[in-house]
Structures are given as C-alpha cells and as structure tokens.
Amino acid sequence: MRPLQQRSPWPSERFALAILTGALRAALGSAAIGMTLAAPAALAAEPSAGAQHHAIAAGPLSDVLAQYAAATGVQLVFEPALLADRRSAGLQGRYTEAEGFAQLLRGSGYEAVRQGQTGYVLRRSATPVASTTTLDAVTVTAAAVPSGTTEGSGSYAARSSSTSSKLNLSQRETPQTLTVITREQLDDAGLTTVDDALRAVSGVFALDGGSIGSNFYSRGFSLQAQVDGMNTPAGIDSGNRSPLYDTAFVDRVEVLQGAAGLLTGAGSPGGTVNMVLKRPTSSFQAQAEVQVGSWNERRVVGDVSTPLTESGHVRGRLVALADKSDSFTDYVYRDRQALYGIVEADLTSTTTLSASVLTQKDESRGHFGVPFAANGSDAGLSRSSFWGDADHRSVRDYTIYTVGLTQQLGDEWSLKANYSWQKTDNDIHHFSSLSGGLNPATGAGLSIGSRQTDYFSVLHSNVVDVYASGPFELLGRRHELTVGLNGTSVRDENNGTGYSGATPINVNTFDPAALGPIRGGTPSRAHTKTRNLGMYGVARWSLTDALKLITGVRVSDYRRTNVVTGAVSPQETGEVTPYAGLVYDINAQYSAYASYSDIMNPQANRSKDGEVLQPVTGKNYELGVKGELLDKRLNVSAAVFHLAQSGLAVVDDSVPNNPSNACGGRCYTAAGKVVSQGLDLGVNGQIRPGLNLAAGYTYTSAEYIEGPQKDQRFRTEQPRHSLRVAANYQLPGTQWSVGGNVAATGRSYKSGGTGAAAWTIEQGSLVLLGLQAKYRITPQTQLNLAVSNLADRSYRHLYGREYAPYGEPRKFTASLRHDF
User: Considering only 420-429, 453-462, 610-619, which range has the smallest mean pLDDT?
Assistant: First the structure.
C-alpha cells in the first residue's frame, strides 16, 4: 500500500483526498467565519489516566452494564427491572472506569455511584431527563439519529422502515417480506455497491449482463428503485440507465418483496429497493478509508458530518469517494468518482428544511461475457477473455438534486414534502455485440455486429413526494393515517449512429484491438415523455390491542408520449391499486400476518379491434409469522407467498400481421398469466452481544399457467433455491472480529432455438464462501481484510448463449479506516 503522504500517480485518488482535506479544513476552520463546531469533548481531550479500551456491542442497557462491570472488574448493584425497556448502543473507545459508566448511562435518568473500593450502585440521577426507552449512541463519535437509522447501531437488525406504506413500522409490524441490509453489515462484508448488497439477500436474484449492467429480480419479477423513499426511474444498474450506486452514501438498503404498487403506481410485481442515504449528525464525526484489492483496485472514501452553527440548528454532511479498478477480464476497467452533500436546517422548532446533491460518474470498458458453443455446451474459452471492441468506452453520469421540508402540524401530525430532479447521461462509444453460433472445433461461427460509433442517452426525471401522517381517535381507540401524492415525470431521449452489418471472427485468432474503425452508420433517435402520478391513502386500524389492520388505496394516472411521432400510448386514468394487511400479536415476541398487495403496468399492445390492452396486473398474497427475540435485538420471519401476474400480451394468430390493420401490425390478446409461489425464511440481528447474523432462505417456483407457454417454467435462468448467510463475531477480550458469508443457489438453465438448432445453457448448483477479519489498531483506527469466492469457483451468469459473463474469481481486499 502506497503511503498517503507520497504523491499518488492516480488522479482520482488525489481528487478524493483533496475533497476530504478541504472538507475537514472547512469544518475545523469554520469558527473563523462565525461558526463553532460542537465536537465532543472526548475527541479533543487526551485519554484519561487509567483508561482502557472497550468494544461492547449494542443491546439491552442492563446487559451492557453487566458486561462493562465485568470488563472493568467491579461490582454493580442494581435492579434489572428498572431498566427493562431501555437499550444502549454499547461502548466503543477508551474510558476510565467512571467515564464508562457515565457514557453508558447518559440520558437514562440514572447514575452509577461508587460504594467501597470496587463497587457501584445504580440510583436515579439528580438531573431530570426526558422520558425515553432507547438511549442515544455512546461511541466516541456517536450522535442522536433519526428513527430507522442503522449507522452506529452495531447491529444487523433494523429498527423500523416506512418503505411499504409510509407508516413507520418495525419489521414485526410490516405485513410483507422486508429485508434490510444495515450499515454494519455493509461495512463488515465490504459491500461497496448496492449491487453487492442486493446479492446478499436470499430473495433477490441478480442477472449480470456485463456491459449493460445487472437486472435484479424478486419472486421472478423485476424490482423498482427508490432513493430515500422517492421513485428513481433510472433503476438500479440496468440497461445502461444508471451507474452502480455506491454504498458510501448509504445508511441502509431496504428490500420489500412482492407487489408494491401502493407507493409506486406502475411497475413490476417483484418489489421495491429503497436506498436510504446518510443524514447529518448532531455532533461532529468524520472518517477516512483507503482500500486496495485484487486487479489493481484502489478506493478512497472521506465522510465528514458536523453542526454548522453553535446551536446545532444547521447541520451538514459531505461524502466523497474515488474508486478505480481493473478486472479479471482482459481490457475491462472501471473508474468512479462520486460526491454526496446534504444540509439540514431547523428553521423553527417545528420546521426543518433540507437540501442535498448526489453525483456519481462511472467511466468503464465493460463486456458481455464469454460465449457458449452453438449447442449450449462449454466452448472451453478462458474466463478472462474479452469478446468486444477494445475501443469501447462507457460513461454514466448520474445526478440527484433534492429539497425537502418537514413540518410538525400539532397533535403529533406532520407534513413532509420532497422534490427531486434526477438526470442520467450515458455516453457509449464503440459498443458491439456477438451473434451466431460458435463451432468450438474450428473457432468459427460468430460475428461482431450492431457496432455503434456513438450512443448518447439522457434521462431527466422530476420526482415529487408529499404526504401527511399522524394519529387519530375513533370508537375509543387510537389509529394512524397517511395521505399523500407522489409521482414522476420523465423525459427519455437517445441518439446514436450504428452499423448493423456483421464482421465474422474466429475465436482462435480474434484480436479486440484489430477491429478497426466503424465505416458508415445509420443514425437513430428516440424521445419519449412519461408521467406516472397518483394519490394514496393508508390507515393502520387498532382493532384490539393485539390486532392491527392496514388498509390502503392508490389512484394513478399514467401517460406515455412519443415526442418524435406525437403518439400517446399507453394512457391510463384512474387506475385503482388496493392494499391490505392484518397483523395479530400472538404474544410479546411473535406476530402472525396476512396481506394482499398489487401493482399495475400499462402496455401499448393492441387487440384486433384496435383498442389498447388493459394494464398487466400483479397480485401478491402472503401469509407469515414474524418475531422480535432477545429483547428485540433479533428479527426472525417465515412467509409463504402466491404472486400472480395476469393480462400479459399474447400474439393473436387469428389476425394476420399487416401494417394496415387496426393494430398497425401484430395484434394481441391479454391471455398470458404467470404464477410464482414459494417460501421465505429470514433471521437478522444480534444472537448475543458481539455476534451479528443475517441469514435467509428462499424457494421460488414460477410457471406460465395461461397462454401459449402454459405449464412451462418461467425464467429458468433464475434458480429455485437461494440461501444467504452472513455473520460477524467480536472475539472477547481482543481487538479482533471475524466473520464470513455463504451464498448458495440451485441449478438454473436457459434454452433457445428449435429443432436441430435448439440449445440449452446451464449453471449447476453453486456455493460461494467469503471470509472477513477486522483488527482495531487503536480505538479510532481499524484494518479490514476480506476474501470473496474463497474456493475460487468458476461459474456463469446465464444472460444468453452468445454472452454469459463469468462470476468474479477469488478476490482479496484490505482497507484501513480512521475515525476522527
């Protein structure tokens, strides 16, 4: 690893370090321009005499106090019932005996008073405090955080989420399958992109498409994307529409599985991925991280959060990163630079205004993968081989500007209004693709075709989300209500110049650098505008103390306009999307639930009478049990689901394909239907102090039950069985923590062609192992080591016969992080 004080030849690294250094100087020097930092005294002071380092994980306050007393060798006398409903975020850093007790009990209303030489007794503090059941974080750089925030929790369990309905619900109160990848899990496993995080969820399947990114599915269907609960039309790393979102900005990744139309409107029934970004903290904290890894990976991240005024009413956070890497595949590289900044201001005691910008630029040379033979068998080509144009280059530039207002309305009601302007620019140079069938014996049979000199696309999105929520009384019981409006207006424009001819190649002699320039080319242009807007309402009814009913409905308008031709299709008005969930508390730990959710997706195909087909509908039925164990440190869940997507367009063979007919060519009927059903099991949280676990198993069986493909399996490239396990353990009495992960999937395959030209490609059952170790050099500095695909398994993503990317071989990474 190159010492940081040396001049780096890597411009991206210098860029990130310059941003971080400037941010720190600006923060630390703000007093000179009338601002005062509220850095904790613990950061400024020298370690007290007799201080020792502690690394106690979050948990019930009584348990944490007992661990601390044992670690310091003293006796603490108290009645555990006094602290039965209180939690602590643990203790990290160097403290004297008394300082540690003071930190752990801060804000609790209690204090530890010495009795004798080695004893303490717990008593109520003389200083009154506000009533609370959960203590603020007490790490050296900790700060009070909003509900649901996972940063600093030290846990794989999330406290709450509003992704399903805008109601702030715990996992147990949410009547759908919900998986949350917390900040702790992201850090432990070194998950640097949202793609990595999604691959850690058992119910999510990632289909790697090489140059065009990955497509993500749940229960057989595509997932929608959100950032901070606001729809993101560019999606997640798919179809050259968006970059691979980096997790440096992310507090947590929430995955809601099954139809989620209540807040989305139009889309696929797979579910929703919500990337929740980091927020400013009420006290100063900062960190810098440098990472190196296989294939010349170099990564630098800086993160600074601080009050910007002495009162703390204005707070800011800045995250900057640079990440550059080659690949195990020849010619392939990635160069990423990104920045996220946010400012929050308390205009009054009831009004908070926020503004943020997130920008990320990925420059890369990608590929589609390695071809199979014409019959689908392995052609024996190296997993490092590159089958494209060596002059290929792709630049994805993504920016989100967001402003938000939160207004407390009284009677515990609040109004939240958010507006986001999103833009994705894609500049693709010398894109190419393979076609044909490979003969491994001769090396012939393939051609490089559809080469494009340049391809430009821009996606402008205006996103709005306004809602009010709060409690109300009815029939002597207290209920909750949220009403709101959200939607997107998207302008999608692309231009390109491409050559549709084919250049035959032989895989035994192919040279990507020898393809030469593209001659001629045919210009192409497409430009559409899409509006997806809806109003929704959702209520949580307290039928009894143990029984809660959630009901919701959305009314949506959808319109897509072809700007080039002026045609409007599809267009839907007043589409109704219902939602219902029933949750019954079996006891203090377990709840049973049943839910129904759906989503619609407009389609432009026409029937033989010229009418546009009704939207495709996806309906999700789910039964499950959820639990909060070990004083709510551990979330467990089990669910069965039945998801039906109906109204799929099927070619109407009774009408000849004729441009002059009522359909303008092919006619269709809404006769296709797919049913996906299966089982989800999940465990997330702390098994015991210092031991975190995230595990899930999903079984999915999907097939066509109506239409020409009736009784055939749906999306065979997605395995039916999926297992994910991740764990991390803080070794008692040491500075080490160790962990590992397992990703196991069943067999999958994909078929095509007919007769003698039929082919099938397949990937057998697969088990991938990873290991991590973390060593805390000082209370503020830690070294992380990780290896993925430990056994160096060779496997393929079944995108297609001509292109099937290999999975990443064994990879090593090492990172050094310092907290200021």
Answer: 453-462
> Looking at residue 32, what is its pLDDT?
31
Chain segment 617-637, per-residue pLDDT in tens? 999 999 999 999 998 999 999
The full DSSP string for 151-192 is: TT--SS----B-TTTSS-B-TTT-SS-EEEE-HHHHHHHT--
**For 370-382, how does the pLDDT look when each residue is reduced to its tens digit (9 = 90+)?**
999 999 999 999 9
What's the pLDDT at 500?
Answer: 62
Judged against a pLDDT cut of 90, whether residue 414 lies above it is answered with yes
* Residue partners of 741: CB distance under 8 A and separation at least 6: 189, 200, 724, 725, 726, 727, 769, 770, 772
CATH topology of domain 285-508+530-581+590-819: Maltoporin; Chain A (2.40.170)
Contact 308, 301 (CB under 8 A): no
What pTM was computed for the model? Answer: 0.82
Coil/strand/helix, residue 585 = strand
| Alpha helix ranges (H) inside 339-424 | none
792 burial type by CB count under 10 A (0-12 exposed, 13-18 middle, 19+ buried) = exposed
Q: Where are the chain's structural domains?
A: 41-140, 178-277, 285-508+530-581+590-819
Helix H or strand E encompassing 204: strand 204-208
Q: Which two tokens stand for residue 740?
A: 């590992």
Q: Is 83 helix (H, G, I), strand (E, B) or coil?
A: helix
55-109 per-position pLDDT tens digit: 776 667 877 887 787 677 677 766 665 675 677 777 877 677 777 888 888 777 7
Whether the CB-CB separation of 350 and 405 falls below 8 Å is answered with no
Q: What angle do CA 599, 604, 609 make, to 5 degrees?
A: 115
Question: What is the greatest pairwise CA distance in the chain?
Answer: 98
Helix (H/G/I), strand (E/B), else coil: 124: strand
41-140 CATH choice from 3.55.50.30, 3.40.50.970, 3.30.70.2330, 3.90.850.10: 3.55.50.30
User: Could you give the 3-state DSSP secondary structure of residue 628?
Assistant: strand
| CB contact at 8 A, 794 and 810 | no
Tell me the sheet residues that pair with 529.
491, 561
Return the pLDDT at 86.
Answer: 73
Which parts of 278-425 fold into alpha helices (H)?
A: none
Whether 656 shows a pLDDT value over 50: the answer reads yes
Alpha carbons 574 and 559: distance in angstroms, whole number: 12
For the domain spanning 178-277, the CATH number is: 2.170.130.10
With b for 16 or more beta-carbon neighbours within 10 A and e for fewer, the 369-389 pattern comes to bbbbbbbbeebebebebbbbb
- Three-state DSSP class for residue 366: coil
Tokens of 803: 């292109």
